[in-house]
Design a protein that fits this description.
It is a single chain. Strand 13 and strand 14 form a beta hairpin. The radius of gyration is 24 Å and the shape is globular. By secondary structure, the protein is an alpha/beta fold. About 35% of the residues lie in helices and about 25% in strands.
Length: about 575
């Protein structure tokens, strides 16, 4: 079969965000829209990572994924790729893709040189909702800015794409399909979606100790996949490997539209799990001891105890504080830890206490990947429900759940038959008493007019030119709030490759260690999302058990009035509060 050159013209707005290109399905299904982006990606990669190479193509199974996989298979053949690996039914979680790229070896002894991941992560799916695509490199991590900038540049100049008119490949069952195309043999290998990932998890965690915990009549467990791709792994790991009851799994059948829900594991969207765990509006009789959820592509996670929410910022700090004792993979120690800039400083305090290397990076997992590739970071996390380690180069929702189960198993190893198990809440409160508490909340204003969002951010930058003037405004709003010590627009120089990332969020830093951070998010598909992060550090043991909303109320008021949020956005309340 011969290679076809198809004429095309550029589309506006194909600039990848922090996690690839995300748009509404109706945008992606335009003739040549997906093809332009895929060809621009091939053209941005070094030739040896395309010609004669092997690629992974899979995703979270959202609407339009099946059609997109067939398009990319044909274009891979047209661009000289020799082999494509596809997860059965086109399903691979984002962390599993990273694991497959890093770990899976082909019959000829070679590995994949990269992957197209079809996901819009935690965004809704369906004909009227979101689709997304991103490219991951040979280390299993997201493409660096040098590549994504080149992809975007290519999309503005593209004139043709290459493809081969192959018949549709059956991706519903494992097996190898071969085609003779111009330039040689091209193969598509469909494989079991879970095996590589399960094998990796068993090499990291002590499954026997977790199994003992789950077998205790005093320990109850619940996992909600929100009808995302995490469901393809939940039964294999939690039920078949660890012995949990099948009834402990919620919404674990992957669906193209995520069952009509929003597959974002937070207190707003994971309604069924939140109610089951006793955190809903009506009280639940005897909730489980431990609950967790993952998002659409299973890279994010939420951790809950009985009637107790663990903030993502606390979660990564607690995992780091307990990793060496509780998780075999880390028994020889942590190389270092890192967090995204908007994430609370809970991890900083642990790093200082344990004398660990510490890094603060912009939002985007690729920044952690550089540190990991250089052997500088073992555990990292983002406040946006992303936690992970150097086992792969993506955040990993199920890894985080297994990390928490490992900590619980370790804390209860001499107590499995006792009267009362150490709970999630016990672990968090003990952590606060040791390290202090970082009261923390995030306000999301979604689908705001992009022009108004930019005006708001520019106004905040301008204010920083006079900190005395800022303090006058702050004291006029709330006299009980500490003075602002300084402010900046966060800029990051990568200690590994020397690259500089500018305009990564606006920070107001207070004298008592409190922070306000304002950031435009790159993960929405239309409009702009303004994220406001509010943090207060409390070391006084008598003050670490307050309601978060009460402790943060003065700073919230300052943030909203200082930024003129309602004036700029027309919104009297955020879309989501975390």
């Amino acid at each position: 079969m011969s290679i076809k050159r198809v004429q095309t013209t550029p589309f506006d707005g194909q600039k990848p965000g922090t996690s690839g290109l995300r748009k509404k399905v109706k945008v992606f299904i335009q003739p040549n829209y997906l093809q332009n982006f895929v060809q621009s990606t091939f053209n941005a990669l070094p030739a040896d990572q395309v010609k004669g190479a092997r690629l992974v193509v899979s995703g979270d199974g959202r609407y339009f994924s099946k059609e997109a996989i067939q398009i990319i298979i044909k274009m891979a053949a047209g661009n000289g790729v020799k082999s494509v690996w596809v997860g059965q039914n086109g399903l691979l979680s984002t962390p599993a893709v990273s694991a497959v790229v890093r770990e899976r070896v082909g019959a000829d002894g070679s590995k994949a040189s990269g992957a197209f991941i079809l996901t819009a992560s935690h965004n809704p799916g369906g004909p009227n909702e979101d689709f997304g695509i991103k490219y991951n490199m040979g280390n299993g991590g997201p493409a660096p800015e040098s590549i994504t900038n080149k992809i975007y540049e290519n999309t503005t100049q593209i004139k043709e794409y290459l493809t081969v008119d192959l018949p549709e490949v059956d991706i519903t069952k494992p097996g190898l399909t071969s085609f003779e195309v111009e330039g040689g043999t091209f193969t598509v290998d469909v494989f079991d979606s879970a095996s590589d990932y399960v094998k990796l998890m068993k090499s990291i965690f002590d499954f026997d100790s977790i199994r003992k915990l789950l077998s205790s009549p005093k320990f109850t467990f619940c996992f909600d996949a929100l009808h995302g791709v995490g469901g393809a792994y939940a039964k294999r790991i939690f039920v078949e490997e660890l012995g949990a009851k099948e009834s402990s799994l919620l919404n674990c059948v992957p669906k193209e539209d995520f069952g009509g829900g929003h597959p974002d594991p937070n207190l707003t969207y994971a309604k069924e799990l939140v109610a089951r765990m006793g955190l809903g509006k009506s009280d639940t009789q005897d909730p489980p001891e431990f609950g967790a959820a993952a998002d659409g592509d299973a890279d994010r996670n939420m951790i809950l105890g009985k009637r107790f929410f663990v903030t993502p910022s606390d979660s990564v700090a607690i995992i780091a504080a307990n990793a060496v004792e509780a998780i075999p993979y880390f028994k020889s120690g942590l190389k270092g830890v890192a967090r995204s800039m908007p994430t609370s400083a809970a991890l900083d305090v642990v790093a200082k206490h344990l004398n660990l290397k510490f890094f603060e990076v912009p939002t985007g997992w690729k920044f952690f990947g550089n540190l990991m590739d250089a052997g500088l970071c073992s555990v990292c996390g983002e406040e946006s429900f992303g936690t992970g380690s150097d086992h792969i180069r993506e955040k990993d929702g199920i890894w985080a759940v297994l990390a928490w189960l490992s900590i619980l198993a370790y804390k209860n190893k001499d107590n499995i038959g006792g009267d009362k198990l150490v709970t999630v809440e016990d672990i968090v409160r003990k952590h606060w008493s040791t390290y202090g508490r970082h009261y923390y909340t995030r306000y999301d204003y979604e689908n705001v007019d992009a022009g108004k969002a930019k005006e708001l951010m520019a106004s905040l930058v301008n204010l920083q030119s006079s900190i005395p003037e800022v303090n006058k405004i702050v004291k006029g709003i709330r006299s009980d709030v500490a003075n602002v010590a300084g402010g900046d627009e966060f800029e990051y120089k990568d200690s590994v490759d020397g690259s500089i990332s500018k305009h990564q969020g606006i920070r107001y830093l207070f004298e008592d260690g409190s922070r306000l951070v304002f950031r435009l998010s790159g993960t929405g598909s239309e409009g702009a999302t303004i994220r406001l992060y509010i943090e207060q550090y409390e070391k006084d043991p008598s003050k670490i058990s307050r309601e978060s909303s009460e402790a943060l109320a003065p700073l919230v008021e300052v943030a909203l009035k200082l930024s003129k949020m309602q004036e700029f956005t027309g919104r009297s309340a955020p879309t989501v509060i975390t």
